[in-house]
Write a structure and sequence with these properties.
Distance between the termini: 94 Å
Radius of gyration: 30 Å
Shape: elongated
Largest sheet: 5 strands, mixed
Order of helices and strands: HHHEEEHEEEEEEEHHHHH
Number of strands: 10
Bound molecules: copper (II) ion
CATH class of the largest domain: Mainly Beta
Number of domains: 3
Structural class: alpha+beta
CATH topology of the largest domain: Immunoglobulin-like
Number of helices: 9
CATH architecture of the largest domain: Sandwich
Helix content: 40-55%
Strand order of the largest sheet: 3-2-1-5-8
Length: 381
């Protein structure tokens, strides 16, 4: 080795050492910032993560080689050093080389990528099926064949949203009823929407599926660690797009069975409640809860709405008009404006009776009348 070559070699080694040191501390920093993809808790999510890392390092290596050659040439063969450019046209060897090498690299990348894609799309032979429906702005989960379905709503207190109290660590990532699934079981998700396009996204499960009205998309997961995994709607779907989070609770099979039994009993009980008669105060209190959870986003907690977009309930001609018109609006939605959705399929008879009673008597409406669940049942039929 000539002296010159040795010195270049030494400098190169030093450069590489410094670069690898910088890369390491940078990687630690990136980890701390949480910039990288999560590894997740399923075999698919781990495959996607390792695919992502592999390809990233391929790109880094290619970048280092290409830019290395480029900068080396520019520095060492610069004009001020009297370098003379080679002057040749068409090198078959060169062209073959720069076609073959990328071809081989792409081939190497395609193998794991294709294997992972095939795995992602194989939602067959699931142990459990859940129909996920996106609504403005909440998710509905139907456990297919289990006669169990419920809505999952944001549970972050209004005080935190309006900066009246400190925000908790799961701010806007918490719901009243999480989707509960057992670990080590293949769970198939059928994803659709009721109004506009939403997207069901849980990074730890590596599931991100568009929820499109009129279509059913399939996805699946098999979680191998009990835990709580959080996600969000990933398709801009209107005013409260940022307020329809997803929480998946993965539990051991036993715990899942117990939860399922309890949840089914509770919904059977709710059905039985529809046959009972309630006092005005019971209806009003329940109605207030339903209103604040489901209606206040548009009509506002004080009933004043956001005219002209969302009409006021206070002194509203509908809420202070004929009972059957009011009930019809809540069950079937507005005939002229789809923003006022049909709550008939979403709410129990009791909840509808309660919220109508509440609207007719809150905000100074003072209609003095009330509705029983049985009336709602009759109106629905
Ligand atoms: Cu959405």
């Amino acid at each position: 080795m000539s002296d010159r070559a040795r010195s270049v070699f030494r400098r190169l080694c030093l450069g590489l050492f410094v670069a690898s040191f910088a890369a390491q501390s940078f990687a630690a920093e990136v980890e701390r910032w949480g910039l990288n993809m999560t590894e997740g808790v399923t075999s698919v999510s781990r495959n996607i993560h390792s695919l992502h890392m592999n390809i990233l390092w391929w790109c880094v290596a290619i970048g280092v080689v290409v830019f290395g050659v480029m900068f080396y040439s520019m520095l060492v063969h610069r004009k001020s050093k009297g370098a003379k450019a080679a002057n040749f046209h068409e090198s078959t060897l060169l062209e073959v080389v720069w076609t073959i090498i990328p071809f081989i690299i792409l081939g190497i990348m395609a193998v794991p990528a294709t294997a992972t894609l095939i795995e992602i799309y194989d939602s067959e032979e699931a142990d459990i099926e859940v129909l996920i429906t996106g609504y403005q702005w909440k998710w509905k989960y139907d456990y297919i064949g289990q006669e169990l379905s419920f809505f999952s709503l944001l549970s972050t207190p209004k005080d935190e949203i309006y900066n009246r109290s400190e925000k908790n660590p799961n701010y806007l990532l918490e719901v009243d009823e999480p989707l509960v699934i057992p670990v080590d079981k293949k769970v198939r998700f059928l994803v659709t929407a009721n109004d506009v396009i939403h997207s069901w996204w849980v990074p730890d499960l590596a599931v991100k599926k568009d929820a499109i009205p009129g279509y059913v998309n399939a996805a699946w997961t098999k979680v191998d660690k009990p835990g709580i995994y959080r996600g969000q709607c990933a398709e801009l779907c209107g005013k409260d797009h940022g307020f329809m989070p997803i929480v998946v609770k993965a539990v051991e099979q036993q715990e899942y069975d117990a939860w399922l039994a309890e949840r089914r009993a509770a919904s059977a009980k709710l059905k039985a409640l529809s046959e009972q008669t309630f006092s005005f105060d019971e209806l009003y209190a329940q109605g207030q809860q339903v209103y604040e959870q489901l209606c206040a986003a548009c009509h506002q907690a004080n009933g004043e709405g956001v005219p002209p977009m969302f009409p006021a309930i206070k002194d509203s001609p509908v809420a202070t008009g004929a009972m059957d018109k009011h009930l019809d609006m809540v069950i079937n939605g507005s005939p002229s404006n789809p923003t006022m959705a049909a709550f008939g399929p979403q709410l129990s008879e009791l909840d509808i009776a309660a919220v109508v009673t509440y609207q007719r008597n809150a905000f100074g409406n003072n209609m003095g009348d009330q509705l029983q669940p049985i009336d709602v049942l009759k109106a629905k039929q």
